[in-house]
Write a structure and sequence with these properties.
About 20% of the residues lie in helices and about 30% in strands. It has helices spanning about 30-35, 75-80, 125-135, 140-145, 150-155, 215-220, and strands spanning about 25, 40-50, 50-60, 65-70, 85-95, 105-115, 120, 155-160, 165-170, 190. The chain binds flavin-adenine dinucleotide.
Length: about 230
């Protein structure tokens, strides 16, 4: 994780200013980008006819924008072009066990983005955006697998969401107990949590002699820790 951000970096708007435990809020682009680049799963929230929906989906980042793709028939992607969206990204880094149940917590890095998603309509831009998403998830794979054809591109919607109005929130460290609880004979501390890639499982239908590609070999160490 980056060193603590410059605390003077202001939020882009009042609605992305962290109010609950504000010293955990960060608004620097570098911090937001680093949290986004360490994963590729986000939750896309939008309201349709008064009903909120939150869809887990993959994403990529290009400069200061998120790129999200899916079926052109997807309700989420159709809706998101017309309505404001809220996207969150979360890393769960640990369970924080305090002496009191009230002070139990979690260590995490998260980002929330508010804005209006717009559709990437130009075919060349759409293909480039899909490459960005692919490279964000598994670098090198775009060059190894068959490229999308015209029909597949038509069947795919790509949305772009500017990261301008975003916030990060980060909790690290041990539990924060009440002074009077510190002497209690209760174990307290942190259970660290991480995501690990398992051993790749070859599709039995892959032709004899096809080697493990470089993208997969590199990914085995984890997307945030690539052995380049
Ligand atoms: C893994 C995980 C577990 C959590 N568990 C709990 C829990 O059990 N109970 C609980 O109360 N809270 C929990 N939180 C914190 C929670 O996400 C909210 O920050 C908190 O509930 C305050 O919500 P609020 O709407 O009052 O925030 P406010 O501070 O009023 O929100 C104002 C603005 O701050 C920003 N913001 C708020 N929260 C976040 C965030 N997490 N990431 C990025 N930007 C943010 C947004 O831009 C938001 O619009 C958890 C967070 C994570 C990542």
């Amino acid at each position: 994780m980056s060193p603590p951000a410059d605390p003077s970096t202001p939020p882009a708007s009042r609605r992305v200013r962290v109010r609950r435990v504000p010293d955990r809020g960060r608004y620097d682009k570098e911090v937001v980008h680093e949290i986004l680049d360490a994963t590729f799963l986000c939750h896309l929230g939008f309201v349709q006819q008064g009903q909120p929906y939150v869809i887990p989906t993959l994403f990529g980042r290009q400069d200061d924008a998120l790129l999200i793709h899916g079926s052109a028939a997807s309700r989420a992607l159709q809706t998101a072009t017309a309505l404001p969206v809220c996207v969150t990204v979360t890393h769960l880094d640990g369970l924080v066990l305090a002496r009191s149940l009230f002070n139990h917590s979690a260590n995490y890095r998260s980002v929330m983005v508010l804005g209006q998603a717009t559709e990437v309509e130009d075919a060349t831009e759409k293909s480039a955006a899909l490459q960005v998403i692919s490279e964000h998830i598994i670098p090198g794979r775009w060059e190894e697998a068959r490229a999308p054809n015209a029909k597949e591109l038509r069947a795919t919607t790509v949305l772009r969401l500017d990261l301008q109005e975003s916030s990060a929130k980060i909790r690290t460290g041990p539990p924060v107990d009440d002074e009077e609880d510190l002497g209690l004979p209760v174990w307290a501390g942190v259970i660290p949590l991480t995501v690990h890639a398992g051993e790749p499982r070859r599709d039995p239908l892959v032709a004899e002699g096809v080697p493990l590609p470089r993208s997969v070999a590199r990914w085995k160490t984890g997307p945030g820790d690539l052995a380049v």
